[in-house]
Structures are given as structure tokens and as C-alpha cells.
Amino acid sequence: MTYDYLQLSKTNGQPLYLQLYEQLKNAAQRGSLRPGQKLPSIRRLSEDLGLSRTTIESAYQQLCVEGYIEARPQRGYFVLTGGGKRSTRPPATVQPILQKLPRYNFGTDAVDSSCADLKSWRRHIREVLNRPQALVSYGEHQGELPLREALCDYSYGARGVICSADQIVIGAGTQPLLYVLCGLMQGKIGAVAIEEPGFPQAEQIFADCGIEVLRLPGDRSGMQPESLRQSGARVAYVTPSSREGNGSPIPLLRRQELLNWAAETGSLLIEDDYNGELRYRARPIPAMQGMAADSSVVYLGSFSKLLLPSVRVGYMVLPQRLLPLYLARAPHYNQTASKVEQLALADYVKSGQLERQLRRLRKVYAQKSSALMHLLQNAFGKYAQLRLQETPLCITIRFQNSPSPARLAELAAAHDVRVRPGPNGQVTLGFAGIPLEDIAPGVQALQAAWKLPEFCVSG
Amino acid sequence: MTYDYLQLSKTNGQPLYLQLYEQLKNAAQRGSLRPGQKLPSIRRLSEDLGLSRTTIESAYQQLCVEGYIEARPQRGYFVLTGGGKRSTRPPATVQPILQKLPRYNFGTDAVDSSCADLKSWRRHIREVLNRPQALVSYGEHQGELPLREALCDYSYGARGVICSADQIVIGAGTQPLLYVLCGLMQGKIGAVAIEEPGFPQAEQIFADCGIEVLRLPGDRSGMQPESLRQSGARVAYVTPSSREGNGSPIPLLRRQELLNWAAETGSLLIEDDYNGELRYRARPIPAMQGMAADSSVVYLGSFSKLLLPSVRVGYMVLPQRLLPLYLARAPHYNQTASKVEQLALADYVKSGQLERQLRRLRKVYAQKSSALMHLLQNAFGKYAQLRLQETPLCITIRFQNSPSPARLAELAAAHDVRVRPGPNGQVTLGFAGIPLEDIAPGVQALQAAWKLPEFCVSG
Question: How near does any CA of chain B get to the CA of A282, in Å?
């Protein structure tokens, strides 16, 4: 530990050794110095502080006498007890995402490491680490050009997004990009419309930027242009591929209607294409961005489930009409995504590995989703409604008559199975993270946890 | 390239091969398919689209006949010409930070690779890459716990910051953290006060969040509590260690006065401690956060100049009174900093390497700043005012009588020297990025570029 916090004054009249003694004593009492911690040697501290060794020695001596520190022969000085702790509050912190991993993890926040392309990802990262010039300089504000070029081709091929590299802005996931977008819209829009039941991760950003969110009820096909018109909103946030709490994507016809609304009213559609490429039961529907003839769609893409959840890189495709505004402001935004990860991703995309990984994952997820659906149908089909949420990579289960989702999750946890309680009496089982061979025993454990049919009758 | 954007309908009455032909033709005309690009093989596309090989072959045949693509024997089909380009606009993009590196780079946006601790940083990254479990899962919302614990000790030792790990929030630099902070303050504050000439990177974030910024003139010691009181602001943004356009940090007495203002008025001080530890001429002044008895300071720390500019990891220490509010909202914020870089940094800090690097850099910067100041004094001292900006790691030079800073930078560029034009007739020479041995020839080149004294007299 450095000791830069020590501030001694040669002019305040108090002997230096006494000032040093008091500051170290306070640090020990406050808990900033912890029991067992080693103090710097007398020589090192005298050099660092520009004081004589005698001064340091006198202070240490006094602290030894009073029992704050002790000298251990050949080893140096150590803090004994502070008589206090750094913090007397209970450790209040956000619930860690993964505290202890259960045996069968149907959570939605990880990917199966056997399906992850760890080996080639590591190779690309290592390769970038060998470019000193890239490491010792800041990144481009807008994101590294090789990555923007690679994403330009990839997003066209995989999603039908039509853009040039200068329309692409990179960021550490969707949220930092939304902040930038909110900045571009600041003061120019009223509220942002979003389909019920909403999407907290996006709504949080709008709220932070002081932008009102209007939750509009949708029908089977999604948000309705008519209710958008009535709401007066000039911006709509849509997730056409992955609708929360509703398995089906927005169909082509509704997409066109929404685009018409945007064109007619001069409004903006924010298309969050989370996992849009991860479809495996039918061919994916291309992004709305590519269907829009005009400048009315902002496209948001990300890779967490496609590549690795730990890699925080997302991208935003700005329509032409927002570009001049963005370019004027870009120099004031520091890039948030890791430069090394950006350059590694550029190589990974350009070499075609992302597309190979996408093909591989589609097969894996088709297999896993069928297996899980089949097993759940057999186990709970009589008493429950099951629904595959294709792009969110999960199956939701709703019993006709049962305790709350939270209680179901608790019962599962007691049998070492992790499921996620959801809204509307639903429980969510993700299949991206669990290995294929664990799905059958996992469902068996669930059956034991949710002893049926008694459970449903008595519940 | 995947071809997921192709959407063929078996029910719309148009032959499939014709639909395919038209969609590929459009892509080529629009420039989405580029000259020289390889098309997927007939076999691959027929599998992907679930169509017969004959269908694909007919479409390709037609495209060949019309000159959009050509068949190269043994190699496959390639796009010939689209008759168009992807984009006809000139490539409008943000000015790249480093276009061509000049021979003598006195820019402020890089560090000298000979001083960077690349070797051990690479080692730590590689070590983290070998932990599959860390890679395949999302990170903690608040930031990885090992890093928060390490920063808790480091920030106390190096800056006198007093906190526990649960008060620390990690983010991809200062800006994403400021967004989160603005969210916490949303609706509860009027304006944020900031000392003239302001700080665009922070002001941009406040503006995005719809928070007004009041620029207050400061005196030699910084912002004055009296003008803060008069402004009615309840939040002040200060950079006590690194004042833009003013070499000197806020002295202890003024810091105490600002803390008194915050305590008396219940206001908040945002302490941006950019490069606070990088002092080498005298011992650093500890952070205000540690001087505050109450809960009135939010501390912001970062590492770009200390570690590597390419690594985007910063941290924010929240005061107790903001913690409950943050914890309630934390689950809605995805972490922005790279998980791998966070874990590598945790190891780097815990092993004491960051502190060793800090000691090393202080010596290097002391040496470089003295050398540069000495040489500039000899070269331009008679006609110019020179000022060392210690923590921003640069020297500003202002001639008594000369062309604009932009013109000075141009003249320097013509001699292969990069300097940064600044406000108030100043030119900035950074010394973090230039190797020590290049400083003398660099100043010589500047002398040739700014032929003095004729220049000053005629300017």
C-alpha cells in the first residue's frame, strides 16, 4: 500500500513524529489500516515522506507501546488491532448474480461453456495484446474502424441491416449507446412509447435522461400504430425479435405498419434487435432497419449470447438524419467498449468465425429447446401451459393452480435447481447455460421439487 | 457472410428462383453485395434456404447472364459489379484520433509504450482468459467484487479515500458512471456548478440527462464557496487535482471551504480525481472524499494514464446517503467495463503492481517534465510564458505575440511535430506519450517550425 494519504506539515508547530503517529493511529482506529496489515519499512517511509529515519522510528515506537502495531523480528511492522473496523455497517451490496452455482442451472444469465467459442476468442485477444501501439493509445470515439467495417457486412448478412461504417457507433452494450441516443434526442421529443410489460433496462436509461416512458398495451402482434398515434409519442422502442413475456416476434405486416407510422409522423423507431439472429425453428425475420426506406430507424445490436456474456460490446446504427448531430458531439464521448475486445471482435467477425459460431449455436439451441420442451411436456404438460420463447432462449411454464413463482423457484432451489420467477405466475427456464446432458436430470429434479399432481391440487 | 436477409415466400405466386434473383440483384445494385465478394455455394445456399439446388442455380444463372456475378471455375460465384456503391456519400466520420503518427508526438492521448507495464498487464489478462466460468457469465452489475475490494485498499493508500467495497461502483470510465449518478440525482437537483472554462466530457453527460450546467468563474484557488452560495446550485463538479487551463490543484484550505459549503447546504461535491495520484514534484494532496466527515462527496477515479489508455475501467465511490437509492436501481444497470479487464486489474492491484507502476511513472514524469521545461525555456523562454500542468502531464506555452494556436500547431505539423492548440492563445505539449530521448530533437524541430525571434516580432 502506498502512504500518500499521510500529510505532514513542517510548519504547524507539532513535531513530525507526533503528526505521523497520530495519522497512523487514526487510520488504525478507523479500520483503514487492518489487523495483520504490514506497514512500510522505516527506510521506505523515510524516503517516501522525505523525513529522517529517526522520525519514522519514533512514531512506530509510540504505536508499538500503545499496542496499535507490533514489530516482528526480521519481518517488519504489522498492525495489531485498530480497536475498530473499517465499516460497522452490514455489507450492503447488490445481490451477486451467481452466488453458488446450483447443480442444474436453468438461469438465463450464462452460456454453456461447451458451446462457447472460447478457444478462438482467446486466440484473437492474445493476438491484439501483441499490438503495443493499440494498447498505449485511446480508442476512437465512435468505435474502432475495423470493427465498424466488419459489423457493416455482418449485420447486412445476418440481419439485412443496410448501412455504412460511418453510421455505426460502438459501445459497451446497449445502455451506453442509449444514453448517447437520448442525448441526440434531448429536448426534441416528448415521451418514448414501449410495449407492455416494458423493458426495465431501457426504461432506466430514459428515466435517467429525464425522458418520459409511455407503456402501451399491444395485441398479439405487438404495439399498435393506432395507439401510437393516439399517444402522441414521437419515438417508439421496439424489440421485434424478442418480445418480453410473449414468445412471438412482431410479424412482417405489423413491422410495415409501424414503419408507416414512423414515416407518416416523422417519428423514430428504436429497434433493439437483442438476439435477433438467434432463431433456429424458422429462418429469422430481417431487421426493420433494412425495410425502412427512409431515415426512421435506429438499430441496436449486441453479442452477449452469441459470443460471450462477459464481453461488453454492442453497436448502434444511426439513420442519416441523426448523423450530423452525432458527429458534432462525438468528440465529447469517450468510447466505453474495451479497445482490445473491439479489435479482437473485428478479427473474429472478419474471419467468418462469428457466422460459424452462429450456425453452430442455432443447431445447439434447436436441439436443447426441443429436448427441454419435450421433457417438460411429459412432466408437467397436463397441469401447465408451456411456451417456447425462441430468441430469449427460454421456456416459460405457468401452472393452472400453484403457489407463486417465487415459491416455485424456492422449491426448485431446495432440489438444487435454479429457475427464474417471472411475472404473471410464470416461471422461466433458460436453456442457453445448461449443458444438453443436464437437461433430463434437471427436469427430473424439478419433478421431485414440484411434486405433482398433489401440488397443483393443494397449491 | 450469412444470407439471412433473403426472404422468400412460397405463397406469393412469384417463382422462387425469380424472388432470389431479384433480392440478390437489389443487394448488388444497392452496394450491399460488393464487387469481388464471394457468394455462398449452390449447395450451401440450398441447405440454408431449404430450396432445391435447381432454384439456386437458375437464379445464379440469370445473375451471370445480366453481368451481376460471374462463375470462376473451381472457385465459385463472385459479385462482378453492382452498378452502384454501398454509399455515395463521402465517408463522414469522426476524425480518427491518430491518423498518421508524427515523428515527434507531443499529443496528450497516448502513453509512452516503453513506460507502460505491458508485459505484466498481458500476463494478468491471459490468466483471466483461462477461467472459462468467468467468461461465459455476465458480470456483477456493480462491478466485480475482487476489483472493488482491491480499489478500496488502493484508493485509501494512494488517495486517502475512505470507503468500503460496497460503496464502489465500477464502470467503463468516468462518463458511464456519471450517467448512473445523474440518474440517482434525477429530479432532485437544479443545476450542477462547474468551474470555468468547464469540462466538456462531463458537461455532455449532464446535458444528455437534461441537467443544467452553471459555469462559475474561479479565482487562483478554484471555485469560490461564495459564488456557489449565490448560484443556488446544490451540486458542484470539481477536479481538485487537475484543473483545466490552470496548473495548480485546489489548495487544502479551499478544499475545506468547499466541503463546508456542501455540509452547510446539504449539497453534493462530485470529485473527479483524474490523475490525482500522478504527482511527482511534491507529495500529492489526498482526495477531498477522505477529508469529508459527512456524506457529501462522490469520488471518481480512473486509470487511463496510470495503466493503459486503451483500458476503460473507472470507479465511483458513493456516499452512504446515496447507497440505498443506488442499490435499488443497480439491477437495471448492466456493467459497462470489460469483465476480463476488471478481473485482471483486480489481480494487478492486489499484487502491488499498480503501486510499483505508480512509483515508476512518478520518476519518469519528473524526469520528462524537467527535461521538456528546461529545453522549452532555453528555446522560447524569452518570448513565451511556460507553465507545467503537473497532473495533466503537459506544459502549456503562450507567446507574447504570435499567430493563433491552430496556426502554431499547423507550423509544427509541417515539421513533423504534433502539439495541441488550446484556448487563450495557448499551445499544449504533452510529455506522457513521447519517449524521453525524443524530447530534445522534438523541441529542436519546434524551434525550426516556429522560427524565432522573427516570428514573434512579425506575427
Answer: 10
**Contacting residues of A for B144, CB less than 8 Å apart:** none
> What type of residue is A403?
P
First to last CA, chain B: 58
Torsion on CA atoms A391, A393, A398, A402, rounded to nearest 10: -150
Residue B351: other Cβ atoms inside 10 A: 13
pLDDT in tens, A392-439: 889 999 988 778 899 999 999 999 999 999 878 899 999 998 999 999
- Which residues of chain B are within 8 Å of residue A320 when distances are taken between CB atoms? 89
Look at residue A455 and tell me if it is in a domain: no
The upper half-sphere exposure of residue B381, i.e. CA atoms within 13 Å in the direction of its Cβ, equals 8
A348-362 pLDDT tens trace: 999 999 999 998 999
Provide, as residue numbers in chain A, all residues whose Cβ is less than 8 Å from the Cβ of B303. Answer: none
* CB contact (8 A) between residue B142 and residue A166: no
Q: Is residue A286 part of a domain?
A: yes
Which candidate in B9, B23, B32 is best for mutational testing of the A interface (most A CBs within 10 A)? Answer: B32
CB contact under 8 A, A338 and B338: yes
To the nearest whole Å, the CA of A235 is away from the closest chain B CA by: 17
> A252: nearest CA in chain B?
B7
Residue B167 one-letter amino acid: Q
CB < 8 Å to A4, chain B: 157-160, 277, 283-284, 286
CB contact under 8 A, B175 and A334: yes
Domain co-membership, B182 together with B289: yes
List CB contacts of A167: < 8 A, sequence separation 6 or more: A317, A318, A319, A320, A323
Q: Which among A300, A306, A283 has a CA at the least distance from the CA of A393? A: A306
The CA distance from A298 to A271, in Å, is: 6
pLDDT at A416: 95
B361 and B343, same structural domain? no
CB B146 within 8 A of CB B343: yes
- Give residue A85's pLDDT: 42
Verify whether the Cβ–Cβ distance A172 to B336 is below 8 Å: yes
Contact A160 B125 (CB under 8 A): no
Are B239 and B274 in the same domain?
yes
**Looking at the domain assignment, is residue B161 inside a domain?**
yes
Are A13 and A36 found together in one domain?
Answer: yes
Same domain, B25 and B159: no
Q: Which of A92, A142, A207 sits opposite B93 (nearest CB)?
A: A142
Same domain (yes/no): A306, A347: yes
**How high is the ipTM of this complex?**
0.85
Tens of pLDDT, residues B47-96: 888 889 889 998 998 888 888 888 888 889 998 865 544 443 444 444 44
**Contact criterion met (CB < 8 Å) for B312 and A330:** no
Domain CATH for B45 = 1.10.10.10
Contact at 8 Å (CB) between B249 and B240?
A: yes
Tell me if B454 is assigned to some domain: no
For residue B450, the 8-state DSSP code is: T
Instruction: Give Cβ neighbours of residue B437 (< 8 Å, ≥ 6 apart).
Output: none
Chain A residue numbers touching B338 (CB-CB < 8 A) = 172, 310-312, 337-338, 340-341
Q: What CATH number does the domain containing B244 carry?
A: 3.40.640.10
CB B355 within 8 A of CB B158: yes
Give the distance from residue B201's alpha carbon to the nearest chain A alpha carbon, in angstroms: 5
Contacts of B333 in chain A (CB under 8 A): 175, 201, 204
Contact A32, B162 (CB under 8 A): yes
What domain range includes position A362? Answer: 104-110+356-449
* Number of domains chain A contains: 3
- DSSP string covering A3-18: -TT----SSSSS-HHH
